[in-house]
Amino acid sequence: MKKIICFALLSVMMLVMFAGCGEAADADLKAVLSDINAQYSDSSVEFKELTSVDDLNVYYMIAPEDVKQFAAQISTDTSAAPVEIVLVEAVDETAAQNVKTALDRRFNSIVALYTSYSAEELAVVNACEVTQSGNYVTMVVADNYDGIMSIVNEAIQ
Predict the structure, then answer these.
(1) Residue by residue, what is the 3-state secondary structure of the chain?
(2) Is the confidence at residue 157, as pLDDT, over 90?
(3) pLDDT of residue 121
(4) Comparing C-alpha atoms, which of 54, 55, 137 is closest to residue 95?
(5) Count of beta carbons in the 10 Å neighbourhood of residue 98
(6) Strands 67-75 and 129-133: what pairing?
(7) Are 43 and 80 a contacting pair, CB within 8 Å?
(8) What is the rounded CA–CA span in Å between residue 103 and residue 60?
């Protein structure tokens, strides 16, 4: 009888232990953006921080009901290479696809705009992309793309 009880308890403990495996991390996207700024901030560039889902709708045509949380900033300096960082956690997979479509549209417009600028600025844009990992969708357009994405990926994995 003791062996059966011990085995049952062991089984329950194993189930509890493995129940959390495979779930995505809950990243605080505002904290992630803060980490990015701490590491890659350029004091000569001014940013507009988007603070409401209505801002996302105005700038990117992202439906507010598709957004669980977000963090975003846009460079206000039009004389330099573009810097736009948009981090979104969508409410579900369908919403994530909607967000990705909206950010792809914006990214394509940035590429089209910068084809008439210098080759150096266009190279910055072409090295960037919109990515999706589960319900997290990101658009990072910045000259430190790889470093920024390593911070983002570490937070959302």
Answers:
(1) CHHHHHHHHHHHHHHHHHHCCCCCCCCCHHHHHHHHHHHHCCCCCCEEEECCHHHHHHHHCCCHHHEEEEEEEEECCCCCCCCEEEEEEECCHHHHHHHHHHHHHHHHHHHHHHCCCCHHHHHHHHCCEEEEECCEEEEEECCCHHHHHHHHHHHHC
(2) no
(3) 86
(4) 137
(5) 20
(6) unpaired
(7) no
(8) 7
- As a whole number of angstroms, the distance between CA 50 and CA 56 comes to 7
pLDDT digits (tens, 9 = 90+) for 36-76: 999 987 777 788 999 999 999 999 999 999 999 999 999 88
CA dist 32 and 72 (Å) reads 10
> How far is 147 from 153, CA to CA, in rounded Å?
10
The pLDDT score that the predictor gives to residue 89 is 98
User: Does residue 2 carry a pLDDT above 60?
Assistant: no
Do the beta carbons of residue 41 and residue 147 sit within 8 Å? no
| pLDDT tens-digit map of 93-143 | 999 999 999 999 999 999 998 888 888 888 999 999 999 999 999 999 998
**139 in Cβ contact with 106 (< 8 Å):** yes
- Integer Cα distance of 3 and 16 in angstroms: 20
The model's pTM is 0.81
